[in-house]
Amino acid sequence: MPNALESLKTMTTVVADTGDIESITAYTPTDATTNPSLLYAAAQMPQYAGLVDDAVQYGVRGNPTDSVKVERTVDRLFINFGREILKIVPRYVSTEVDARLSFDTEATVAKARELIRMYEADGVSRDRILIKIASTWEGIAAAHRLENEGIRCNLTLLFGFAQAVACAEAGVYLISPFVGRILDWHKAKSGRDTYPADEDPGVISVKRIYTYYKHHGYKTLVMGASFRNVAEIKALAGCDLLTIGPTYLESLQQDEQPLKRTLSEEQAREACDNAKLTLTEIDFRWLLNEDAMATEKLAEGIRRFAADTCLLEDFVRKRIFRDKVA
Q1: Residue 326: what pLDDT?
Q2: What is the residue range of 280's domain?
Q3: What is 204-237 written as a DSSP string?
Q4: Which of 132, 214, 234, 297 is catalytic?
Q5: Which pLDDT band, with edges at 50, 70 and 90, does 324 fall under?
Q6: What's the predicted TM-score (pTM) here?
Q7: Which one, out of 44, 195, 257, 270, has a CA that is 20 to 30 A from the CA of 120?
Q8: Phi-psi region of 191 (alpha: psi -120 to 50; beta: other; left: phi over 0)
Q9: pLDDT tens, 148-204?
Q10: Contact 135/167 with Cβ under 8 angstroms?
């Protein structure tokens, strides 16, 4: 009898939410995602010192300014980990654009193109990369342009329905609604310590988006992310994709109870209560403003990813200038 993880893989694409290559190998996911937080943790592990050394050598090549050295080293670190992960997973790795560019469409497009250029210079096709971009209006506009250039995008930090609608209208490849962070907000506001899976606001949000997409025939895929417990994952069995950290992957692997499908395209086509929407920028900003949870969690998420990018930059800066002194 298949365990819960094996059962889940029969109905949902399982994505590893980690930068730890050894963990990815252990759970054989189809795809993997990375972000500055995960990369910062992985870069400090002794087994990945070679990837860090290579990134530093790349960053200082040609002796650019100090700020350029740091930026290039961080970019190279993302490429190095992404390249190694792609030796394990059969499909995609998601590589994130600097969150500090979340409100700058032109800079986001430029950074995405540069990351793709670096991958392709290493012999990695753009067909295996998803560029992660925050689901701001500017980020969604950037993703629309990139998709038209053949660069697939993963729109992250997605908390509200307006964001999901705008992403689908822009034709992005994939969205990542953050289940656990939605739950965090509601727990803090309500004072409740627990929510059963069928009442979990994050689970309900993803189900609504999934149903809306399938009912209206959008091609954009839904990847639930940022889980707080295994029950959330089980409640979304059948979703297009789920990105899951090593702790929950292990729990699912050890669970001998097979899962039942809770989401399907057939049911979604019949169950949607939302008429199809087309949002202007004014519509988007107003609806996002009216959703306090999405507004607050989007801003918080951008700040947190930006802070983690700064930590990663500090880490490589110490390496660069330690090596320079040595």
Answers
A1: 46
A2: 4-325
A3: HHHHHHHHHHHHHT---EEEEB--SSHHHHHHTT
A4: 132
A5: low
A6: 0.94
A7: 44
A8: left
A9: 999 999 999 999 999 999 999 999 999 999 999 999 999 999 999 999 999 999 999
A10: yes
Place of tokens 């390496």: 319
Residue 246 in tokens: 């090593």
189 is catalytic: no
- Note the pLDDT of residue 323: 61
How does DSSP assign 65-106, residue by residue?
Answer: -HHHHHHHHHHHHHHHHHHHHTTTSSS-EEEEPPGGGTT-HH
Total domain count, the chain: 1
Cα of first residue to Cα of last residue in the chain, in angstroms, is 57
Residue 263 pLDDT exceeds 80: yes
The amino acid at 305: F
Scanning the structure block, which residue is given the tokens 């190095």?
80
Q: Return the CATH number at 173.
A: 3.20.20.70
- Round to whole Å and give the CA distance between 34 and 16: 9
DSSP letter for 19, please: S
Q: Are 268 and 210 in contact (CB under 8 A)?
A: yes
- Kindly give the interhelix angle for 36-43 and 66-85, rounded to the nearest 10 degrees: 90
**Which of the four pLDDT bands, split at 50, 70 and 90, describes residue 96?**
very high
